[in-house]
Design brief:
By secondary structure, this protein is mostly helical. The protein contains six helices and two strands, in the order αααββααα. A hairpin with a 5-residue loop joins β1 and β2. The protein starts with 9 loop residues before the first helix and ends with a helix. It has a single domain, classed as Arc Repressor Mutant, subunit A.
Length: 147
């Protein structure tokens, strides 16, 4: 059903669910590159142990995911060394961080407390469409020009 209670046509609904599935597929990669960038900025390096602790997953899960990210051209790593972002990984991390900040700031502007907005932005950032994100930016600009 859409926002007006009308049943979506099959093609429209398939498109919606397809977009959600695609977002789920990229969500892990986006979380990893964002966190790797944050760790490098804060600590000068990103280690598998740090990723595992921050993501609440096992070291083996991090190792497997990092291998997939290497295959995707997003990170580089050598045995017993830190994990580094490639140029493509850095670009993706910037895009994901920007989306996160826009969503978080929008939630705060509409009255969500900062901690909840930060937590909710973590999930929403992966699923928000370009059009919705642009609307959030317009609203944020409007709120700052009025404030």
């Amino acid at each position: 059903m859409d926002g007006r209670g009308k049943l979506l046509k099959s093609k429209q609904q398939a498109d919606v669910f397809g977009r959600v599935r695609k977002a789920h597929q990229t969500e892990v990669a986006e979380d990893y590159v964002e966190l790797i960038a944050d760790l490098i900025a804060a600590q000068g390096e990103a280690r598998a142990a740090d990723l595992a602790a921050r993501l609440g997953v096992s070291h083996a899960t991090v190792t497997n995911t990092v291998q997939r990210l290497i295959g995707a051209g997003l990170v580089e790593s050598r045995p017993y060394r830190s994990i580094f972002l490639t140029d493509a990984g850095k670009r993706l991390a910037r895009v994901v961080r920007e989306r996160h900040l826009i969503v978080r700031d929008f939630l705060v502007v509409i009255g969500v407390d900062a901690e909840t907005a930060e937590n909710d932005a973590e999930g929403i950032e992966h699923h928000v469409s370009k059009e919705t994100l642009e609307a959030f930016v317009r609203m944020l600009r409007k709120s700052t020009s009025e404030g």
